[in-house]
Amino acid sequence: MSVNVSAYHSLMQKVDACNARLVAVSKTKPKEDIMTLYELGHRDFGENRVAELVEKHNALPKDIRWHFIGHLQRNKVREIAPFIHLIHAVDSLRLLREINKRAAENDRIIPALLQFHIAEEESKYGFDPQQATAFFNELANTPAPSVALVGVMGMATYTDNEEQVVGEFKLLSDTFSSLKSAHFSQEDSFREISMGMSGDYPLALAQGSTLVRVGSLLFGDR
Fold it and tell me: What CA–CA distances, in Å, run from 77 to 21, 48, 54, 115, 210?
């Protein structure tokens, strides 16, 4: 068995203690590994490639809650719109508009997170925190009623400098608080902070993460 079941139980104890949730990142992993965790009661799984996600959704139990965690191309949204549980990485207004369109076609409201660029690496996607005001001004003029914005997402710099990582996670947590106060004070559904992966999830939990995205600790290296 390639799934580390003992690591899963240990991780779940830590996540539960922080009132957070675990998204088991199953990208590139076989369906049998997903079923190992499914049979332990796990339901939240993350994928970052649309074709692989659709294939797994078609083959596996329909009560799995699929999370799309990678950079999502607009021309791929329609393929996951009928079933996706949460899109973690809305990084542009144009993508939000496309999700809204495809959600309406499927008579759904699709939950999504706004991705913020909190790391030093230029390769990572996301809004700068300062761009949020312009984004919400545009959204106020032309709403997207078939998308439910339920929180924020970010990825820290890949570094051994824990102080830097903590600072980046704190920036995302502070961004969430600012958005909550300014735009979602009456919305209980705006509650998610998706941050933390296999190498830094304890730091993320300490800064208020509600969703950690963990793959290699559970499934081994890719």
Answer: 25, 12, 11, 16, 25
Q: List the domains of the chain with CATH numbers.
A: 5-219 (3.20.20.10)
For the whole prediction, is pTM greater than 0.90? yes
Cα distances (angstroms) measured from residue 215 to each of 155, 203, 204: 14, 16, 15
For 166, half-sphere exposure in the C-beta direction (CA atoms, 13 angstrom radius) is 6
Tens of pLDDT, residue by residue over 111-155, are: 999 999 998 876 667 898 677 888 999 998 999 999 999 999 999
Rounded alpha-carbon distances, angstroms, from residue 67 to 25, 54, 111, 113, 183? 9, 12, 10, 11, 24
Cα–Cα distance for residue pair 137/132, rounded to 1 Å: 9
Total residues found in the chain within this entry: 222
Contact residues for 98 (Cβ-Cβ < 8 A; gap 6+) = 74, 77
